[in-house]
Write a structure and sequence with these properties.
The protein is of the alpha+beta class. The chain has five domains: about 5-50; about 75-310, DNA ligase/mRNA capping enzyme (D-amino Acid Aminotransferase, Chain A, domain 1); about 315-430, Nucleic acid-binding proteins (OB fold (Dihydrolipoamide Acetyltransferase, E2P)), CATH 2.40.50; about 465-590, DNA polymerase, domain 1; about 605-675, 3-Layer(aba) Sandwich (Rossmann fold). Bound molecules: 2-(butylsulfanyl)adenosine.
Length: about 675
């Protein structure tokens, strides 16, 4: 390959690495899976080994973590906090040991190395400095050279001894280990953080230690940095001492010789992984003897005497039993593979999405194929690859249906006006309620939170009522046959009375919610709001059914050709018109309130970041706008108030602080709104 091309490809990977590295260490965000991040690092290292002319100061061989955040004081580590090289296979492990032997000028067979093997907890590392047995300073890893002073936050952790009286405890030592949160404790913070690691990292770097205290953090110790006067000669004894000194150590730490034994321990732990109450992403192997460690020394940012043997990503092998076609609210046909149930990371997986027709073709996925399935976090399981060696000769290519499996209408791939390309997604061509499956999805949308928000009317109930033919169109919701429902399993007098009440309550609805609830394609909450403002009364909107005023809609900022075509389509359908007429009679649709321009929040601008409690962002926006306040979309000196909810975007908060903008929480916003009543 051409040298320039190689360089270009390398730089691209470095850029990507730098980006995700910053996200991960500085913002606690994982946009890609850990396994993908590791893979990227590996690719860079392979390129660097193969082509010696490739070099970058941002290479993972040089950088560790990311520079400390501005929130905390920076303190240099007396001994750098290093990173670890990764091994992914037995071969990698054998190579690691070979290098150790070569470096030490020893031959295999004559010499054996003992390893301290320690489960690699997926948390945040911290360095605890003790002087005369007293915990005085605690640092984060930062960029490996300088850490952040997070002493006060670390002091809130019970597992961290504050005073150590043991006689053999060194006069000065920095004890290093992992801060993490147990999976069972994480359950209560599931809505706030993507995973336990993020929860630990977010909590540890709170400005206020009282906020750190709210999350039950744990600490496991495993190594040390700078020390004076320690009389210990190997890692295993060091770990034993840690235990005596009052630190928690990992109960699965072991002393092992030989790569074969390392492999069997690896397999055992990998099987145990799902049963542990803390996340581990591999095992750390450390040459046990400190003498040998000293001789082996470090490469740029990792010791030669240790390696992290990473567990494979959350994937497994299964067989495709069938391919189902699911139909969404907008008619989109989504193929789903029914697979032989397999346990991936403790969860039984029996469905995997195939995304769309093109994906099936690209990967040539066939019923009967043996496939690799991946499940990561909350993402729907998907198929990574087909094992062609295991394919029976008689397996036929999957033919994607050209008719809707529910209503038999033809299916189409639309031309996307924005991308100027044909969509990858194939859709049922019926305009909605004619197709039973689409109708069910439309009704689910109609009753959903941002639409009619009918309490107690969940997806399962919609499906059941549709199956029992109690509902076919939205208006049927307001004419339910409760006598029949009462005979159905799971329904009693009380639950029926509750349902009746919540349906009755929602007959009074805002114009914008009503438009949104209709589920017109490309008309989300924002567009529904714009349309309601433009038409002012529902009657004006309904008049679209016999008018040619569609192009007028172009005047609305935010509404384009795609939206107008979709509205036209909606109004050209008889069933939709019938639905509108019926609903108009049943409901009390409020006129859109013309917003006064001279309300009490005139000239005041607001911005929201993070999730609000009990009210949607859309609702908060409309409350502000009702008082003539405006919502802006970026932090600038024109912003008056930044409202922060749960998990705000750090960048925005930082920017607002620097510009001295009022940062308020939801309660304070409510006070402002009440005061201006
Ligand atoms: S030793 C020079 N021991 O893994 C040795 N690290 O990629 C470096 N980790 O930053 C650390 N368990 O966050 C060590 N038993 C263990 C560990 C461990 C987890 C983490 C730690 C470190 C990262 C290295």
């Amino acid at each position: 390959m051409d040298k320039n091309l190689i360089k270009k490809n390398y730089q691209k990977k470095i850029k990507l690495f730098k980006y995700h590295n910053k996200k991960y260490y500085d913002e606690n965000i994982s946009e890609i899976k850990d396994s993908e991040f590791d893979e990227l690092k590996k690719e860079i290292l392979e390129l660097e080994t193969k082509y010696k002319f490739l070099k970058s100061k941002n290479s993972p061989t040089i950088t560790v973590g990311f520079k400390p955040s501005k929130n905390f004081k920076k303190i240099p580590h007396k001994v750098p906090m290093l990173s670890l090289a990764n091994a992914f296979s037995e071969e990698d492990l054998i190579n690691f040991e070979k290098k150790v032997f070569n470096f030490l000028n020893e031959t295999k067979g004559k010499f054996e190395i003992e390893y301290s093997t320690e489960p690699k907890i997926d948390g945040i590392s911290a360095s605890l400095i003790y002087k005369k047995g007293k915990f005085i300073t605690g640092l984060s890893r930062g960029d490996g050279k300088e850490g952040e002073d997070i002493t006060e936050n670390l002091k809130t952790i019970d597992d961290i001894p504050k005073n150590i009286l043991a006689k053999n405890f060194p006069n000065y030592i920095d004890i290093r280990g992992e801060v993490f949160i147990k999976n069972s404790d994480f359950k209560s913070f599931k809505d706030k953080f993507a995973n336990p690691r993020n929860a630990a990292s977010g909590s540890l770097r709170q400005k206020n230690p009282d906020d750190t205290k709210k999350i039950p953090l744990k600490f496991i110790a495993y190594t040390f940095g700078y020390q004076e006067g320690m009389k210990v000669y190997n890692q295993n004894d060091f770990l034993k001492n840690l235990d005596k000194w009052g630190f928690k150590i990992n109960p699965y730490n072991k002393l092992i010789k030989g790569t074969k034994n390392l492999m069997s321990n690896y397999k055992q732990l990998e099987n145990l992984r799902n049963k542990l109450d803390f996340d581990i992403d591999g095992i750390v192997y450390k040459v046990n003897s400190f003498d040998l460690q000293k001789r082996l020394g470090n490469v740029a940012n990792a010791p030669r005497w240790a390696i992290a043997h990473k567990f494979s990503a959350n994937s497994g092998v299964s067989k495709i039993l069938d391919i189902d076609i699911q139909i969404g609210r907008t008619g989109a046909l989504t193929p789903v593979a029914k697979i032989n149930p397999i346990n991936i990371g403790g969860v039984v997986v029996s469905n995997a999405t195939l995304h769309n027709e093109d994906e099936i073709r690209r990967k040539d996925i066939r019923i009967g194929d043996t496939v690799m399935v991946e499940r990561a976090g909350d993402v729907i399981p998907h198929i990574i690859s087909v094992d062609l060696k295991k394919r029976d000769n008689d397996l036929k290519k999957f033919v994607f249906p050209d008719k809707c499996p529910s209503c038999n209408s033809i299916t189409v791939k639309e031309f996307n006006l924005t991308t100027k390309k044909k969509d990858a997604v194939r859709r049922c061509s019926s305009e909605g309620f004619e197709c039973e499956k689409v109708a069910i999805e439309k009704i689910k949308h109609f009753v959903s939170k941002d639409a009619f928000n009918i309490e107690g009317f969940g997806k399962k109930i919609v499906e059941n009522f549709c199956k029992q033919k109690l509902i076919r169109l939205p208006q049927d919701i307001f004419n339910l046959n409760f006598i029949q429902i009462e005979k159905m399993e799971g329904w009693g007098k009380q639950s029926i009375s509750n349902l009746k009440y919540s349906i009755e309550q929602r007959k009074d609805i805002s114009f914008e919610r009503f438009i949104y609830a209709l589920g017109i394609r490309h008309i989300g909450l924002e567009n529904a709001k714009l349309i309601s403002k433009y038409f002012k009364t529902p009657q004006n909107f309904f008049a679209l059914s016999n008018s040619s005023r569609f192009n007028e809609l172009l005047e609305i900022d935010g509404i384009g050709e795609t939206q107008i075509n979709s509205i036209k389509n909606f109004f050209s359908n008889k069933t939709n018109i019938e639905v509108l007429k019926k609903l108009e009679k049943i409901l009390k649709i409020q006129k859109s309130i013309a917003l006064t321009k001279d309300g009490p929040l005139k000239n005041k601008s607001f911005m929201i970041t993070g999730k609000l409690n009990g009210i949607s962002r859309a609702e908060a926006k409309s409350l502000i706008e009702k008082k003539s306040g405006s919502i802006i979309s970026s932090v600038s000196k024109n912003l008056d108030y930044l409202i922060i909810g749960e998990k705000p975007t750090k960048r925005k908060v930082e920017a607002a602080k620097q510009l001295n903008i009022n940062i308020i929480n939801q309660d304070e916003l409510i006070k402002i709104l009440d005061k201006t009543n």
